[in-house]
């Protein structure tokens, strides 16, 4: 009897293995980064919405009122057609029979539900549950008060979870069409910092000795600046940073002023830096135009400088929050080392 080639047998077995064991590839999550799809009964939402608005739903003037994240509530029956949305938030009480409760019991193993309920501050979160780059959070309470307590105890962690996933997705989006490696490396060689630059920005000003680089793009109009100075010991650091912000707009860019009624600052952690985040509204001193600005100020010990990463946006009749988030995504690539895309 004629023997079969061992190589052919191996290939057939390998093909059968892949056919049996390989699930279809998971699809990418869909929807907007700033929209959180919410499945929650009316009574539970009445308790939870005010708490969530303190973080995820916080309000910004751009100058129109916009929320950092928008909550899009759907009926439980529509969850199946929204199951691959980028951000999913499910809130329920297991003691109350509802369609939401049924979904939660089918989604989570009994031991997971038990572990959540036994911890007073327990909740469930995971990535890539039903789609790639998805963020899913499930809050399970025993009563209205328990739901509120769990949200209050975890609202910062929940906020940071959605934020981290948003920035990861936004980074892929911002640089999806490429980036300007030569320009970024030029700034590193000139000034000692590296900032991954979106492909569509053009350099407006880079004058040695001015301690600022200024870039921009249009449709809608956005300006991005990196300015810096050496801190002194005779003045509070926070005062120096604010002075750098105002000097950047009023003197270095020029023809721009800050609307003092909307000036806001808050401490944040920016990578490994303790920073101050500034936001509010800017106005032109020459034309009837303006819009939101966003800026990060911090001290960088390698270069012994305080830096201000700043962006302003002019986008009439458009939502501004998505463009602000793109600016912040670029800010977060700041480094004193050259970016290695293969690392």
Question: How would you describe what is shown here?
Answer:
The protein is α+β, with helices and mostly antiparallel strands and 343 residues long. It folds into two domains: 140 residues, 2-Layer Sandwich (Chitobiase, domain 2), CATH 3.30.379; 151 residues, Protein Transport Mog1p, Chain A, CATH 3.40.1000.10. The protein is built from nine helices and 15 strands. Strands 8, 9, 10, 11, 12, 13, 14 and 15 form an eight-stranded antiparallel β-sheet that branches. The model has no long low-confidence stretch (mean pLDDT 91).
What do we call the CATH homologous superfamily of the largest domain? Mog1/PsbP, alpha/beta/alpha sandwich
**Beginning-to-end CA distance, first to last residue:** 54 Å
Q: Domains counted in the coordinates: how many?
A: 2
Spatial shape? elongated
Q: Could you say what the CATH topology of the largest domain is called?
A: Protein Transport Mog1p, Chain A
CATH class of the largest domain: Alpha Beta
**Unreliable stretches covering 5 or more consecutive residues:** none
């Amino acid at each position: 009897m004629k023997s079969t080639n061992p190589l052919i047998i191996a290939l057939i077995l390998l093909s059968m293995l892949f056919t049996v064991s390989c699930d279809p590839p998971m699809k990418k999550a869909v929807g907007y980064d700033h929209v959180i799809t919410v499945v929650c009964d009316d009574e539970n939402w009445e308790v939870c919405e005010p708490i969530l608005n303190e973080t995820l739903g916080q309000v910004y003037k751009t100058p129109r009122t916009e929320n950092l994240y928008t909550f899009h509530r759907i009926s439980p029956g529509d969850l199946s057609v929204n199951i691959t949305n980028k951000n999913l938030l499910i809130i329920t009480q297991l003691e109350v029979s509802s369609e939401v409760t049924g979904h939660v019991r089918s989604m989570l193993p009994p031991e997971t539900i038990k572990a959540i309920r036994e911890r007073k501050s327990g909740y469930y979160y995971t990535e890539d549950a039903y789609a790639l780059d998805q963020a899913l959070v499930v809050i399970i309470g025993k009563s209205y008060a328990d739901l509120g307590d769990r949200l209050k105890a975890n609202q910062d962690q929940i906020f940071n979870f959605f934020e981290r996933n948003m920035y990861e997705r936004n980074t892929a989006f911002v640089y999806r069409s490429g980036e300007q490696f030569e320009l970024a490396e030029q700034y590193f060689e000139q000034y000692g910092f590296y900032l991954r630059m979106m492909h569509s920005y053009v350099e407006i000003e880079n004058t040695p000795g001015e301690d600022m680089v200024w870039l921009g793009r249009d449709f809608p109009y956005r300006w991005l600046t990196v300015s810096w100075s050496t801190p002194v010991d005779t003045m509070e650091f926070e005062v120096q940073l604010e002075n750098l912000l105002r000097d950047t707009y009023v003197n270095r860019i020029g023809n721009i002023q800050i609307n003092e009624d909307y000036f806001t600052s808050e401490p944040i952690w920016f990578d490994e830096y303790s920073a101050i985040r500034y936001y509010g509204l800017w106005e032109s001193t020459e034309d009837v135009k303006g819009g939101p600005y966003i800026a990060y100020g911090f001290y960088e010990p390698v270069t012994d400088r305080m830096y201000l990463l700043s962006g302003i946006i002019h986008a009439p009749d458009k939502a501004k929050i998505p463009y602000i988030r793109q600016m912040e995504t670029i800010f977060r690539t700041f480094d004193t080392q050259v970016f290695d895309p293969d690392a």
